Amino acid sequence: LVLALQCGGSDGYSGITANPALGEAADILVRHGGTAVLSETPEIYGAEHLLTRRAATREVGEKLVRIIKWWEEYCARNGGSMDNNPSPGNKAGGLTTILEKSLGAAAKGGTTTMRAVYNYAERVSAKGFVYMDTPGYDPVGATGQVAGGCNVLCFTTGRGSAYGCKPTPSIKLATNSDIYRRMIEDMDINCGDILDGVSLKDKGSEIFELILKVASGERTKSEHLGYGDNEFVPWQIGATM
Questions:
Q1: Contact at 8 Å (CB) between 22 and 178?
Q2: 3-class secondary structure per residue, the chain
């Protein structure tokens, strides 16, 4: 299994419910010999040290640092800034700075050793936890992950991003119980109950079990709804955050 780790429409709960719970699931997957692929470079900005300190080798860590520097130059060339984040929706959901958002986004990657760093859409060959350089825009990031070989995708959301993905099934994780109830037709797992006392470990196990079921043929909510036909979005020329 090669699992894509994605988040979109993040809110103030993302970093304490769905994202770390997904990180727990990623750790379980890695322990069983699978691969978990974190991406969205603009959305780990400011928290990259949490990943580089987990690098298997100095070379792996330095590659991520070079990517961060490239992004700073890329944004400057196109009249943008890496600090042009979080989005209005993120702010409405309780996030105030890119650092808050990045700390939550990095939590999706769990705690295991970072074995490799890949360029956009590069074929993922390493086992374990790895990183892929992609924009933060969800469809572009996920397209790169799928092109690299991800065959299941987990997508956390607090604002209700209705993201589906083809040909890779997208498992939706709601960060709060309110969005889960209001979008129950599209949300596969409620991580909001972590706020009511469910442990991250137990929720991670629940996510992992669903990943196995989906990998074995069970359809996700997005698949039942037919989402995903328009979500193939390669990285285009110009500033794509």
A1: no
A2: CEEEEEECCCCCCCCCCHHHHHHHHHHHHHHCCCEEEECCHHHCCCCCHHHHCCECCHHHHHHHHHHHHHHHHHHHHCCCCCCCCCCHHHHHCCCCCHHHHHHHHHHHHCCCCEEEEECCCCCCCCCEEEEECCCCCHHHHHHHHHHCCCCEEEEEECCCCCCCCCCCCEEEEECCHHHHHHCCCCCCEECHHHHHCCCHHHHHHHHHHHHHHHHCCCCCHHHHHCCCCCCCCCCCCCCCC
pLDDT 10s digits, 165-187 = 988 999 999 999 999 999 999 99
Domain regions of the chain by residue span:
2-225
Give 28-87 pLDDT, tens digit per residue.
Answer: 999 999 999 999 999 999 999 999 999 999 999 999 999 999 999 998 888 888 876 667
